[in-house]
Design a protein that fits this description.
By secondary structure, this protein is α+β, with helices and mostly antiparallel strands. The chain folds into four domains: about 1-95, no CATH class; about 125-180, SH3 type barrels; about 185-270, Alpha-Beta Plaits; about 295-455, Jelly Rolls, CATH 2.60.120.10. It contains 16 helices and 16 strands. Strands 4-3-2-1-5 form a five-stranded antiparallel beta sheet. A four-stranded antiparallel beta sheet has the order 9-16-11-14. Strands 10-15-12-13 form a four-stranded antiparallel beta sheet, with no helix packed on it. Helix 3 (about 30-55) runs antiparallel to helix 4 (about 65-85), helix 11 packs across helix 12 and helix 12 (about 315-325) runs antiparallel to helix 14 (about 400-410). The radius of gyration is 37 Å and the shape is elongated. The chain starts with a helix and ends in a 5-residue tail after the last helix.
Length: about 450
């Protein structure tokens, strides 16, 4: 069938091989064969594109390459039509147009530079569309995802989706950092100055805990694992600079968002551990105490911790001071239990450093980070623990027993309603976040409202 069709086309009166083609007017005798050449050029170009669309991975042809292939295909068939249909020498035509070509080329030298730079960029195996790159060009920084390399411009998209168009010739002269190669994840670092008066190992643990918190929220990748290094010392101010390194998938999380999350967790956790970023001129007298407890030896240090616990925000400054004076510090090693299921302890703990895992049997259901508390229902109502709470790594806790809260509620019974409201809001928020509340207190069979249960437990009267 194809042979018959080709014969009909090539030997009919409309083809360039027809012997009687000169008997027709030029617009017929030459025009129709010329159209045939262009039709063959179109079919050849479509065949090339159809084949290219089937290629994937490293064999895939860039869009600019396909466009150049289209130009070469049509130019080849156009040259063939000039020689075969019109009987003109292609070399003579090119020689005659040489002077015009030089003039046009000089006028369009910028355009030609962009085109040839685009060809070179498309042939560069280290750059592909979809890669995240940082570009330094004429002292200005550009950062974004490579969308396309066109005839004249490279198209970058920033985190907001805005397109940045950079001429190919200028892009090729810039300094490029490809954050998508050799691995799809890329490393970033964030620095934080902390006073050198604190134990370096303890500060590193707190900052690593902050990175783990960022991993849990999905902002930072778990693998490769984030890490902390000491990167500098300012002898004049007594400040050590810690650098937190973490890895991002830039298709999922931006650098600014990740840096904000990492720094926020780091500052919050250092504050919960009663550590300052910069030295503060002050005079304090500390009683001798075991290693690891020195920062919480004084009630004022414990007061700063309790002041940042949302559940206790309803208490006045004097009430918080009284609570801090009667609280105790607990140091746990990795794997030690802070609470066990079924215990009837009448106390609450606040995470100061490290973190706690809440477990039902062998299943981990929640993680408690610095500033978060566990066991509030046992403290307020005497409910038994309904889950195990285990330290993950070295962990510092502040324990608030019933005896510490009793004088406060007896002196100000109105705080019962405020505390009950705060507890209800917290448990409701956790239920919405996780679907089911992952607490460590059993509600029991007592159907009385929370306020009545608190009054009954502390014998305040109803």
């Amino acid at each position: 069938m194809l042979t018959v069709t080709a014969s009909l086309v090539l030997h009919s009166w409309v083809s360039w091989t027809a012997p009687a083609r000169s008997d027709y007017p030029p617009w017929v005798g030459n025009g129709l064969p010329f159209i045939q050449f262009m039709a063959l050029a179109f079919l050849t170009d479509r065949l090339f594109r159809f084949t290219a669309e089937r290629l994937t991975g490293s064999r895939r042809i860039p869009r600019l390459g396909l466009q150049l292939l289209t130009v070469v295909t049509y130019f080849t068939f156009l040259g063939a039509s000039v020689g075969i249909v019109f009987g003109e020498s292609v070399s003579a035509v090119l020689a005659a147009s040489g002077i015009v070509g030089l003039a046009v080329g000089f006028a369009l030298r910028g355009l030609l530079a962009d085109v040839f730079s685009g060809i070179a960029l498309n042939l560069d195996a280290s750059l592909h569309t979809g890669h995240w790159i940082d570009l330094t060009l004429r002292g200005k920084e550009y950062s974004g995802r490579l969308v396309d390399i066109q005839w004249r411009t490279v198209v970058l998209a920033d985190r907001a989706g805005n397109h940045i168009l950079i001429p190919n010739s200028e892009f090729a002269t810039g300094s490029i950092l490809n954050r998508s190669l050799p691995l799809p994840s890329t490393e970033f670092g964030t620095s934080l100055p902390v006073s050198s008066q604190y134990d370096r190992g303890r500060v590193v643990q707190i900052l690593e805990n902050a990175l783990d918190r960022a991993v849990e929220t999905g902002v930072v990748l778990a693998q490769p694992a984030p890490y902390v290094r000491v990167s500098g010392l300012d002898a004049a101010t007594g400040t050590l600079t810690y650098r937190m390194f973490y890895f991002l998938d830039l298709d999922c999380s931006g650098q600014t968002r990740a840096q904000s999350a990492v720094l926020s967790h780091a500052v919050d956790f250092l504050k919960a551990a009663n550590m300052r970023l910069h030295p503060v001129n002050h005079t304090e007298v500390f009683r001798p105490s075991p290693a690891g407890f020195d920062r919480f030896n004084e009630p004022s240090a414990r007061l700063r911790v309790l002041a940042d616990v949302p559940l206790l925000s309803v208490l006045s400054q004097n009430e918080l001071a009284a609570l801090a004076d009667r609280s105790t510090i607990i140091l746990l090693s990795d794997g030690q239990y802070a609470m066990r299921e079924g215990d009837d302890d009448e106390s609450m703990v606040v995470v100061v450093e490290g973190r706690l895992a809440v477990q039902h049997g062998d299943r981990k259901v929640a993680t408690l980070w610095p500033g978060e508390c566990a066991g509030e229902m046992s403290l307020l109502t005497g409910s038994r623990r309904s889950a195990d709470v285990v330290a993950e790594g070295q962990t510092v806790l502040m324990e608030i027993p019933k005896q510490a809260l009793t004088p406060i509620l007896q002196a100000n019974p109105l705080q019962v309603e405020r505390i009950a409201t705060a507890v209800a809001k917290r448990r409701s928020a956790e239920s919405q976040h996780s679907g089911t509340f992952a607490g460590v207190d059993h509600e029991g069979d007592d159907a009385l409202p929370l306020i009545a249960r608190i009054r009954k437990f502390f014998r305040l009267g109803i």
